[in-house]
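Collaborator request log, item 7. Partner lab (contact: R.S.) asked for a structural prediction of Serine aminopeptidase S33 domain-containing protein to inform their binding assays.
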Amino acid sequence: MAAKFAFFPPNPPSYTILVDEETGKLRLSSDVLQQRDNVDVLKLCTQKGNEIVAMYVKNPSASLTVLYSHGNAADIGQMYHIFTELSSHLNVNLMGYDYSGYGQSSGKPSEHDTYSDIEAAYKCLEETYGVKEEDIILYGQSVGSGPALELATHLPELRAVVLHSPILSGLRVMYPIKKTFWFDIYKNIDKIPLVNCPVLVIHGTEDEVVDFSHGKQLWELCKEKYEPLWLKGGNHCNLELYPEYLKHLKKFVSAIEKLPPHLRNASAQSTDQPEQPLNIAEHDAEKPRPSTDHKEKARLSIGHREKSRLSTESREKARASTDRRERTRKSIDRMGKARNSTDQPEKARNSFDRLGDMVRSVGLCNVDCLKQAAAEA
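Returned to partner:
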């Protein structure tokens, strides 16, 4: 039932696959595609038994790799130009893939099939291209935020996540529900607190398909918040058109690339610090603490009554420390409970038919938008 209202693969697909007679390599064939030597086209087998199509854009100067999960009603033929432009302007390698039942991928789309699809793409990056987990950025657009966050919860050393017009969950796109039901799909609201790496959220304030409140609440639930990008007036399908889109992505990738290893995934080691948006420039070297040895020696030289006072102070400090740890534990427990119950008001959808009309537009964008934004950036 949920899949019928969640997935709208382009019909017919925007591309076909041909074998290059000279090289024997696979190529995407379309009237609007310009073949590039730095693009590999692959067929990958998933654990569900499907064969999906993926494309890998190579950038010889890149140190990071983006694994991109596209939106609904799109395939990699339509995303081809955006993928190649992002690879060039962000200075990254980029892998995009079609979900089962999309483009020339076999099978039928479902929530769990998309999880198997992204796992196959990730495995290809590791085994075929030698990409390490800590050098990967997961990018999820709209419905693609589902498989991206699912994989992110299983990768403790992941470098970063980008959520582009993401959804809280499938049902929450239609109705402002306050709790998660077992039959809901893409329960991102419950998964985002489990992601330990920095997360960038991008959303348009006038999104007519996935309300702006989805992106805002997901950002608020992040452990490692990066400065979000709320594009004023942006809708669901035109964010790439804004010059700020590419500028902010460049800033994010540059910051993540420079982040020292010991500062990555900091929230995985500590939950005591207040949550603040990640700002790489503010990570200064730790300043040495002033010495207090002479004061300590003076205290130790005092008589029996002073020693007794110090012992009393130690007990008081121990009790205070215990109280702080207990408050921290209770705070973390409350966060866990809040994760399952909190939800900002969203605009209710009156019918499943209206959802179908809206979801058909998810993930579609003007393939020339990124080039225009890059020229203005």
